[in-house]
Amino acid sequence: MSYESALEARIAKKATRAIVDFDLIEDGDRVMVGLSGGKDSWALMQTLDRLRERAPIAFSLVAVNVDSGYKDFKHDVIARTCEERGWEYRIEHTAIGDVMDDLLESNATPCSLCARLRRGVLYRIASETGATKIALGHHLDDFIETLLLNLFFAGALKAMPARLVSDDGKHVVIRPLVYVGEDEARQYTKACGLPIVGCCCPACGDLSFQRQRIKRLILELDREHPGVRQSMLKALGNVMPRHLLDRRLNPSGELRDSAALRHAETLPALIPIHSGQA
Ligand code: SF4
């Protein structure tokens, strides 16, 4: 069975590489796809569906949309699209929007609280539907933007994992689009005729100032140096803890590098010992 376009083949290849590199999907898995109705989640659902048809292993898919309860949210469009394509789905109606209004401090960015609340709902539904994996649509650009956001504004050198086991060990979150660019996801969703459904929340499309700045920075750098995004992604898989300053990874006083150790052992012979007499 061949792919319908070069774009589809390229995305399928990248997702397959991620699945292999990080052990994302195994034989017998039931994968629950977090389907927000945005371009990335549609691209993820379509990609996994294509891979499922061709994969040498058997796995099933169920799309889950968490409706935050905002007026005018077109969950019916999501439901109809899933039905037309023969995708198993579930729409979960919640009051996350109201809860956010109550919990959110003024001036705070809503998206991280929203993501935590939705994650909680996804975990619950995963248990109810017997899902063994929860797939999210984060792509390459999400990974590198998060890396720079943490680096510049949070004082931490971290992005996000392609595979994460929840704190209680009950759920595994996977991100099969880690090697797929945002542009590719956007083009693929459009080419497949999948309808982008806005979440209708007041913050929708209103990215934080820092994230907008990081997006612009990466865009400018990428224009000057095509390949900079790939290099950043590669860096996430090429970490050298001893060249960082985190003492939890590299306790001070421990010279584990044998070359450095040999060098250190020769130092006393090279440094003249003064007797204290002038
Ligand atoms: S834009 Fe709205 S719905 Fe989307 S993550 Fe942010 S707060 Fe949540």
Please tell me about this protein's structure.
With 278 residues, the chain is α/β, with parallel strands linked by helices. It has one domain (6-239): Rossmann fold, CATH 3.40.50. 49% of the residues lie in helices and 10% in strands. It contains ten helices and six strands, in the order H-E-H-E-H-E-H-H-E-H-E-E-H-H-H-H. It has helices at residues 6-22, 39-54, 75-85, 96-103, 110-129, 140-154, 182-191, 209-224, 228-236, 258-270, and strands at 30-34, 60-67, 89-93, 133-135, 163-165, 172-174. It is globular. 27% of the residues are buried. The structure holds iron/sulfur cluster. Iron/sulfur cluster (SF4) binds at residues 68, 110-111, 114-115, 199, 201, 203-204. Iron/sulfur cluster is lined by residues 68, 110-111, 114-115, 199, 201, 203-204.
In short:
With 278 residues, this protein is an alpha/beta fold. Helix content is 49%, strand content 10%.
Rg (CA only):
23 Å
Form type: globular
CATH architecture assignment name: 3-Layer(aba) Sandwich
For this structure, the CATH topology is Rossmann fold
Give the helix level as a range of percent. Answer: 40-55%
- Work out the number of β strands: 6
The CATH superfamily name is: HUPs
Heterogens = iron/sulfur cluster
Q: What series of H and E elements makes up the topology?
A: HEHEHEHHEHEEHHHH
CATH class category name = Alpha Beta
